[in-house]
Amino acid sequence: MDSATSLIQAAKNLMNAVVLTVKASYVASTKYQKVYGTAAVNSPVVSWRMKAPEKKPLVKREKPE
How far apart are CA 31 and CA 58, in angstroms? Predict the structure, then answer.
């Protein structure tokens, strides 16, 4: 059981790291601007259309009978 708990915690830590990376990438993409000739264009290089994913449990719990 400890190994399963450890695996679940590692998965949560990994997902948190992914979320932080995506957030940092989004912030960086909104701060960087392409330069065409002598004028900077105000639109970001990367266009993000973010939608929160549906939350699903990592472990399906059995209903007690």
Answer: 35
Which single residue is written with the structure tokens 């948190």? Answer: 16
Phi, psi of 14 (to 5 degrees): -65, -45
Burial environment of residue 44 by CB neighbours within 10 A (0 to 12, 13 to 18, 19 or more): middle
CB 59 within 8 A of CB 8: yes
pLDDT band at 14 (very low <50, low <70, confident <90, very high): very high
Domain ranges of the chain: 2-44
Residues 6+ apart with CB under 8 A from 26: 48, 50
The pTM of this model reads 0.48
